[in-house]
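Model it.
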Amino acid sequence: MKVERFEDLDIWKDARGICTLIFRVTSSENFSKDFKFRDQIRASSGSIMDNIAEGFERGGNKEFAQFLFIAKGSCGETRSQLYRANDFGYLKKEEFTTLMDQTTTLSKKISSLITYIKSSQFKGEKYH
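Modeled.
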């Protein structure tokens, strides 16, 4: 399948799913009262999908790869925050496990796409 929009990217879809799940778990009573932390983990999880989208829309592989690195960093930040949320008792065990698995898998997928882009002869649509 040809990727024509960032919405076609599986990594963006995965990031969107993580962001949605983070929003749901941070809406629980205990978590929602920790305003700064709640907003921080929501922002970092949203940053994953937003940087994938922004990098794709730039139209060049070098910029896309750079934004993918930023998205990967945000994925790591979210994962670190999940440990804190778990330590604070804000997450159920299954929520923590699911989100850790999803963020770890997404980070690996982003790395794979970065490797592919860097080795590709295609420079991006803005160079046609």
